[in-house]
């Protein structure tokens, strides 16, 4: 794992283009709800 991007979900309103581009190049893009559900914990195991 090289990079993890976590957005508050509101990022789609202010950073739509960077986030859309990130999905194409960064396999680990999460929002805060995903963090609450343990996605990062699963990734790090």
From TrEMBL:
Ranges of residues in domain Restriction endonuclease type II DpnII-like: 2-41
Q: Which GO terms describe its molecular function?
A: DNA binding; type II site-specific deoxyribonuclease activity
- Say yes or no: keyword Hydrolase present: yes
> By its UniProt entry, which Pfam families does this protein fall under?
DpnII
Question: Which keywords does this Swiss-Prot/TrEMBL entry list?
Answer: Endonuclease, Hydrolase, Nuclease
* One BP term from GO: DNA restriction-modification system
* Spans traversing the lipid bilayer: none
Signal sequence span is none
List the InterPro entries hit by this protein, alphabetically: Restrct_endonuc_II_DpnII-like
What name does this protein carry?
A: DpnII restriction endonuclease domain protein
Provenance organism: Streptococcus anginosus SK1138
